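Structure (tokenized):
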């Protein structure tokens, strides 16, 4: 094998490894609507209220689903858009 062939093979392998690592980190967890709904119900049930401050809700919700802050905010948006929760003036209410 000549040098250019070896360099091409190394570059292709490196690009493949980078693609796999990036895909793995981008799609770390998959959250199903049922999981999110159950976690929200547990947060409110454990607090014993129907409405709570957003900061407390986010902290408790993050502990229930065990996710990163970025994923948490994504799930919060999904929960709001599907009507599981409503947010007003810094409070979260069960939808």
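Design, position by position:
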């Amino acid at each position: 094998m000549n040098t250019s062939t070896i360099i091409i093979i190394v570059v292709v392998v490196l690009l493949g490894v980078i693609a796999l690592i990036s895909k793995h980190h981008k799609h770390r967890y998959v959250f199903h609507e049922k999981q999110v709904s159950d976690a929200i119900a547990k947060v409110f049930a454990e607090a014993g209220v129907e409405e709570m401050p957003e900061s407390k809700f986010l902290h408790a919700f993050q502990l229930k689903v065990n996710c990163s802050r970025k994923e948490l905010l994504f799930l919060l948006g999904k929960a709001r858009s599907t009507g599981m929760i409503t947010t007003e003036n810094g409070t979260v209410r069960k939808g």
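Reviewer-requested clarification: The chain is about 70% helix and 10% strand. The longest helix spans residues 3-26.
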